[in-house]
Write a structure and sequence with these properties.
The protein is of the alpha+beta class. It folds into two domains: 95 residues, Nucleic acid-binding proteins (OB fold (Dihydrolipoamide Acetyltransferase, E2P), Beta Barrel), CATH 2.40.50; 190 residues, Hypothetical protein af1432 (Orthogonal Bundle), CATH 1.10.3210. It has eleven helices and five strands. Strand 4 and strand 5 form a beta hairpin. It is elongated, with a radius of gyration of 22 Å.
Length: 319
């Protein structure tokens, strides 16, 4: 019998499937009994699951990153589908079909990277072109950039999501800039490329997406500025010519202001036309991706409206 993927599950459905254990936490309820809080995944997505009254032999029987056969039933809780399990036990790696769990789309990543190279290598500004080429030629950076998610949750939160979000934003920038003659189109497109590169170091790429120690302590905005500085030094050494200071300041400003508000983590408010445009285009792409995800994963019985989404603080009209 073919498996049921996570995106095919519905409310009040019995499940007996193998999942990848993306996260595992042992918790205690108010009565002091232990239960397992799990994040289960396959190639189509993730689902939260609970196993009540977890015995030690079960808790010790599998770890994060293992495959496990899970039996139980689905239910709807606060508008989200979750699973209440009655049984969990480890399955050896050689007993699973790896393609059922691989979320990274290598073909899409290859196409996205090819278009990214076209945009960066086609820049007329020699300093911006050299900078882009320095990132593209970095054998440590590019594999992480291809695989990284753009977020832990909310938008583009899947392997390859950062590359997709970055490319979408660069394409938006290239499309919008000609409508506003005062904008420096290439500066805006380069800002779109640079704005989230720090996320390649902010988030762990192994198992469930989590923040690294550096990510927790420093954050992707500061990491991004540090990465930019390192690449600029490489460009200066490799070509015998430094990137002009004023151009560097503009690029740094694009990174540090792209969240748009001080309370959202930007050390500076957007103070250039390009920075203002980048912030709003970034917000547009992220919000539309997040809303689309909410609509596509909605489990309400209403054909017109989704359940209330607490993160975005609204319901959405379904197309």
């Amino acid at each position: 019998m073919s498996r049921r993927f996570i995106n095919q599950l519905t409310e009040q459905e019995s499940i007996d499937e193998i999942f990848l254990v993306a996260d595992k936490q042992l918790r205690a309820n108010r009565q002091g009994s232990h239960y397992l809080l799990l994040k289960l995944s396959d190639r189509t997505g993730k689902i939260t699951a609970m196993l009540w009254n977890a015995e030690d032999r079960v808790v010790d029987g599998f770890q994060r990153g293992d495959y496990a056969r899970c039996q139980g039933r689905t239910q709807l809780y606060n508008g989200n589908l979750q699973a209440i399990l009655t049984s969990v036990h480890k399955i050896e790696d050689d007993q699973v079909e790896r393609s059922d769990f691989e979320q990274f789309d290598a073909g899409a990543s290859e196409r996205n990277e090819s278009r990214l190279r076209e945009l960066l290598e086609g820049m007329r500004n020699v300093h911006l072109r050299r900078l882009g080429q320095a990132f593209l030629g970095d054998p440590e950076f590019m594999p992480r950039f291809r695989l990284a998610p753009a977020a832990i949750s909310n938008h583009h939160a899947f392997p390859g999501g950062l590359l997709l979000h970055t490319l979408e934003l660069m394409e938006l920038a290239a499309l919008v800039a000609p409508r506003y003659p005062k904008l420096d189109a290439e500066l805006l497109v380069m800002g779109a490329f640079l704005h989230d590169l720090g996320k390649t170091e902010e988030m762990s790429l192994v198992g469930e997406s989590t923040y690294t120690d550096r990510g927790q302590l420093v954050g992707h905005i500061v990491i991004g500025v540090q990465m930019l500085g390192e690449k600029m030094r490489e460009v200066a050494e490799g070509h015998g010519e430094a990137i002009p200071c004023e151009l560097r300041w503009h690029l740094e400003h694009l990174i540090i202001s792209h969240h748009g508000n001080l309370e959202f983590g930007s050390p500076r408010l957007p103070a250039s036309l390009e920075a203002l445009a980048l912030h709003h285009l970034d917000n547009l792409d992220a919000k539309l991706a997040a809303a689309t995800s909410v609509i596509e994963s909605d489990l309400s019985g209403d054909e017109r409206w989704t359940n209330y989404n607490p993160v975005m603080q609204r319901k959405f009209l379904k197309p």
